[in-house]
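Weekly sync, protein design subgroup
Attendees: M.S., D.O., the rotation student, P.L. (late)

Item 1: inverse folding check
M.S. brought a backbone from last month's batch and wanted to see whether the design step gives back something sensible before we order anything. D.O. pointed out we never logged the input encoding, so this time it goes straight into the notes. Structure tokens as presented (106 positions):
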């Protein structure tokens, strides 16, 4: 497993914890990160679910949320790009990102 922060140009993904796989729930292992700005302030969170399962066709491999005041600056997209590199390290081949059309922030 990977156990480091991921540093980008504008944001850093700070590893909070790694969620173990829970097969009886259909959960794959996941990396859970804080999205931090260059000053180190937590502006949101994101996670990468490593693997594929039927449930991920709804929930996706990547999830994210940002505090309202940080929306509109493409931080979620930047976090996804950083997570793509981690997905490649796990040879995922593809990732699923889903969006509820009623979720205007997404």
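Designed sequence read out in the meeting:
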């Amino acid at each position: 497993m990977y156990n480091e922060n991921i540093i980008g140009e504008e944001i850093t993904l700070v590893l909070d914890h790694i969620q173990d796989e829970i097969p009886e729930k259909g959960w794959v292992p996941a990396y859970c990160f804080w999205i931090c700005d260059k000053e180190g302030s937590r502006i949101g969170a994101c996670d990468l679910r490593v693997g594929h399962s039927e449930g991920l066709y709804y929930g996706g491999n990547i999830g994210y949320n940002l505090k309202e005041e940080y929306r509109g600056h493409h931080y979620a997209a930047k976090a996804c790009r950083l997570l793509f590199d981690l997905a490649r390290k796990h040879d995922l081949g593809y990732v699923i990102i889903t969006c509820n059309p009623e979720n205007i922030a997404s």
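Discussion: The first helix runs from residue 56 to 59. Helices lie at 56-59, 75-89.
Action: P.L. to compare against the previous round before Friday.
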